[in-house]
Amino acid sequence: MLHLKTFGGLSVDIDGTPGTGAAQQRKTLALLALLGAAAQRGFSRDKLIAALWPETDAEHGRGLLKQACYALRRDLHAPELFLGSIQLRLNPAVISSDVESFARALEEHDPTRAVACYTAPFLDGFYLNGGGEFETWAESERARLATQCRAALEVLSAEATGRGEHRVAAGCWRRLLELDPLSSHAALGLMTALDQAGERAEALRCGQAYGELVRSELSAEPPPELSDWIQRHRRVAGNGVAANGAKPSNQPPTMMASVAEAEDAIAKVQAVPGSLIRRVHRAHVLSLTAVGAVVLLLAGAGYTVWRQHGTIGATEPIAVPGRKMLAVLPFENRGPPADDYFADGLTEAIGLRLGGVRSLGVIASPSARQYKGTNKSVAQIGRELRVQYVLQGSVWWDKTAGAGRVRVSPTLVRVSDGRQLWAAEYDTVLTGMFALQTSLATKVVGALDIALLTAERRLLEAPTASPEAYDAFLRALQAVEDGSGNPAGMRKVVGLFERAVALDSTFVSAYSYLSIVHVIMYLSYLDRDVEQLRRAKVALDRVMRLDPECDTGSCCALGFYQLFVLKDYDGALQAFTRARQVRPSDHHLPDLISHVYMRQGQWSKALAYLQEAERLNPVDADPAGSLGRLYAVLRQFAAANYYLDRALAGTPHLANARLVKALAYLNLTGDLKGARGFLPDVSENISPTGTEDVIVSLQDIVLLLSDEQQTRLLQLTPAALDGDTAALALAKALVHQRRNQPVLARASFDSARVVLQDKVRRHPDEDPFYHAMLGLALAGLEHSEDAVREGERAVALLPYPAGGSESTLMPANLARIHLLLGDREKAIDVLIGVFSRPGPLSPAWLRVDPFWDPLRSSPRFQQLAAARN
Questions:
Q1: Are 316 and 142 in contact (CB under 8 A)?
Q2: What pLDDT does 316 receive?
Q3: Which of 604, 633, 755, 831 could pair with 106 as two cysteines, CB 3.0-4.6 Å apart?
Q4: Cβ(396)–Cβ(336) below 8 Å
């Protein structure tokens, strides 16, 4: 049996004996590496030729590939080494590889086996001089596999911490720190695990060693949270008590605060208008309204490098390590406040143009935007964003001059020593803004000593020739941030993009965003009229006519429509991958690719892409929240709580952030009282129908509320839930039923039934949420056959795993229906199925949710509720 070794070098052996001849030549070894990493996907012969013999013509390249394959078959004594004709791949019956074993272990959710396979970096020390795209591919694969190994180690550390095996967790963190020695996250994880294992002195030693490494390698101080940890624990080292006199906590390090601290923090949060609470996630759709600031500008940022560059390994995360990292901070508006949108838009445009350079990593604007008007030093910002360079500047738009003059003063600063590497001052008219952006981006790249490829230079071209259309476009992007969480705000966004395309009928960026916004309007229940989808398709058709080959990155809009409307996951993945060749620094694209993999049940890949998105957007709440939700789906609730704590710290005013945190905490601990400390007030519109991916609607959590909150709910009108009569009626029905008020319960169930039957009639095959809720209402009215039919219809409309995390919620809802109908054994049967696959619910939730009280005497239920995650 042949075996290909790719971790820690590149070699092939025959039953343990090193191969000879072609098996030791660099080009033929590189061919095996390409095919080994591709596994069963294989590579087309054309791509192999482009990677290994880029200097040859097609005919000569085919001859060289044929000769290389022949030599390998001969010298490895393996005539059946290769399979396929057009798409070439290795024969797994003849040759195995460590990289394929690693990938298979991840797909089988076996992180222990995966990290055992990863012995060293991929192709470490192997280079192919003159290999064209091979070196780029190898670097990308090396970073992708390292990312996946780190993800697997984090999962193992979270599992070990949850079991109380802190030394095992420390071993995982130590390995993580070996993979990324400058990672403060890994250093803190190791220190915390060692401390919990009773090895505080070793924890302090590791922290000090890490600080010395950062100072020597980066000429910077370690992150303040690490220094604070060392000082806090050094004061109490040796006496076995915490600074406040309490014994060291055995809580997992991912639990960022005690319940008491959380309750105190929540008590200080003021209520916000219900309209703002519409800014919530359903399958993370609403988080994608921020696409306006990042994803959609890519459509007008220039021409793609899809054909000329980066076609190998394109569906995997692009490396951040090894690239020069830059943050484009918000340019200061020196004009009136009304011109803020213009300065912000210029910042976005510059960041996006620079984000098309593969050798440069650009931090996402939501993270950079948090430093608007900051007093923090460049060194502190650099540490927090983990960048080596910062671009900052000012903008002044003088509208009194004839055509309107714009003055832009940018400065590029190196973080390590504060040195100014480049500065300039541009003075131009509004129509010269596009040339200004091109010149500025080009100068920055030059100052960073990065050579631009020809294809990358095309990314610097203007998105439109019309300044007026561009102005409408920038105003639309600001409107996305200011009011995208409610119908009126989104209608304003639509109107501004429509104005942009009216002013320039070839403005592909604006058409792309217009299509995406219409899809969001529909999916987020801001306007549940199928006319939204028709308009989305009209705008998308225009995009594809303007850019049929996706040369401007407009395939992001195509992928969005394919993913969320057509459920064409392969098509969406291809579209997002192509868009990512244009914008390798765009954090939204790995997030979208993660959505695809979640719907295909490829959880390890989904996690790797979300972690890539978080690295590019490190201080924003959205990627942390997305990671927390995914860890919850994987029932890694310790890790979920860690990331959700981060998200909640960034958005403490959002009811949905507190709701998701409350449920993750409950699923981890089974502490109902503690979970109530995180839950928002019921009057804050906890969850309108269909806008959350952890519950179907308010009725799912109503019995988790305190008696006081339930009483307050009974006094609410539908206006508190943005007019969601059905959700409120169902929640009231369950409270009345719990309080043994059958007449009132039946009236509320019937009110919900009337509303929901009308909705189902209008959306018979589109909306699983309405079918699920109608099933509950009918069950409350004891209409057995109809209730079960509606519940089963909801399950069918969101099959696992294509339905995302909601595909777990629908069977759980069906179990509720069976229990309301008095069929306890059937309810337990369905619950057993719920816990047989990933989903955001745990046995801890079963143990404390009062809804399931009628099942508590059942031995089958007791066994299910006693299980571990």
A1: no
A2: 43
A3: 604
A4: no
